[in-house]
Design brief:
Layout (H helix, E strand, L loop, with lengths): L3 H14 L4 H10 L8 H22 L3 H21 L3 H15 L6
Helix pairs in contact: 1-2, 1-3, 2-3, 4-5
Amino acid sequence: MNTRPNERVTVALDLLSKGNSPSVVVSRLAAGWGGAACSRRTAQRAVRAAYNVLKQDFEVSECDRAAMAAQCINLLMEGAQQSLNTNNTGALVACIAQLDRLVGLSHQK
């Protein structure tokens, strides 16, 4: 039996849980992380499966959504502050955009 797909999902789950973006994880899997190199499509399937595992774990854990939102807001605020300190306006705009999506700062039509 070929266990390579499961190995890729395990590696993808590890990389995602460490904060890597899905596109980075797809690129790394396609380049050969977690076994032999594969197509980007195969890597995308592994990342999708890993995301499903993360989602199931989140739903089973019954974590406090308000506490999670507060932590995310805090991280985005810290990122915005670092962006200001380093004069990185692109990162600042990205942090503010994510804050807007998370807490609804802008007027909704």
